[in-house]
């Protein structure tokens, strides 16, 4: 069983032909992924107003895809409205916040407000992290009652800060996808935060899941670690 | 076994990591990599002649090929080192302008590249392909861009259409269909396996290869055939 907590649906602005949900499913099959949480690319990089609803037909047609509703912390009225409208569909398992595209760093007051809104709905969030904002995000999560967050990318090149972030709160989990993975990174992190805090994510259809699966393979997981990281932690956090 | 165009030994002052040739050799087997083209970081970061001697010694010991590193901060010595490499039978030169803080517009980069082309040497080129690629266009160079990222795949394809000697390494083409797009647009002859083991999570590239949509013939080109052609060595 593999649950991928970091997926996307829709076209990218790069030279890649992945717009159709059939691509998600084909690559999931190739990589043994059973369920993928997806956010709409349009909602991440352009506009949640149109991007989040555009995802609905793909979710309805493909039950192995579960939605991440994109929240822009600068437009929480829109987010609140879409949460009221779209959560009752039962098609969304969580939220997605991109700190860079949405101009809302992990430690910002806007992030705290967004996580408070999601906590009201008991909805976990996958939050893009890059650089030392991963620690600032951890402090925000610790301050917001009920917030549950998965920090995507382990902060990218700031991945050695992951243990410091993990110490701030036990309501923060971590996801390791990265297109330029440093050697030995996942085992190093795992040995410091424990397998209960890490879960698999791929960033497909931007990155091929084989990239992060290869990095995880290099970490030499025990069977107990594999169960937690590849599906159980995600199933518990996102209620799958 | 895979042949890897992007092997590095030595110490990286930026990270403090150190990888001797013997340790790199020990790491390749479990990855299914049989060898490849090795450069010494000493040649790129401190002293090209002694670093290149180190790389040639490791290559001879391990049955690999050496690529000569040059330091573009001293283009005069770099030009001499290209000539020395050619005289010693080395088949490739590695350029690392970003690592050395040298802009792609530096006269030394073009001069060293031109000297390498005149000596019929393959170029291994670090850096953003959108920046360093145009700087090397029009020279008739055979080049492998070892930092070509899938974010910039479209630009690489445009460059490669005009430059028949331009090739991309696999290392950072980790998206869903980058390898296949490149093969369709300019041919699998332009894709060379590189994973920089020990400095990059090479298993990610190996697994991307396994998951790829290449035909068996394309696969053989990528994992060795293309690099052998570029180096002029038999299978």
Please give a structural write-up.
The complex is a heterodimer of chains A (240) and B (235). Chain A has a seven-stranded parallel beta sheet. In chain A, β6 (149-152), α8 and β7 (172-175) form a beta-alpha-beta unit. Chain A has helices spanning 21-31, 41-45, 48-54, 56-61, 76-86, 109-120, 133-143, 162-168, 185-193, 209-218, 223-238; strands at residues 3-9, 35-40, 65-70, 92-97, 125-128, 149-152, 172-175. Chain A is 44% helix and 15% strand. Chain A has one domain: Alpha-Beta Barrel (TIM Barrel). Chain B is α/β, with parallel strands linked by helices and 235 residues long. Chain B contains ten helices and nine strands. Chain B has helices spanning 21-31, 41-45, 48-62, 75-87, 107-118, 129-135, 153-162, 178-186, 202-211, 216-231, and strands spanning 2-11, 18-19, 33-40, 65-69, 92-95, 122-125, 143-145, 166-169, 191-192. Chain B has a nine-stranded mixed beta sheet with strand order 2-1-3-4-5-6-7-8-9. In chain B, β6 (122-125), α6 and β7 (143-145) form a beta-alpha-beta unit. The longest helix of chain B is centred in the C-terminal third of the chain and has 16 residues, at 216-231. Chain B is globular, with a radius of gyration of 16 Å. The chains are: A alpha/beta (240), B alpha/beta (235). At the A-B interface, α1 and α10 of A face α7 and α9 of B.
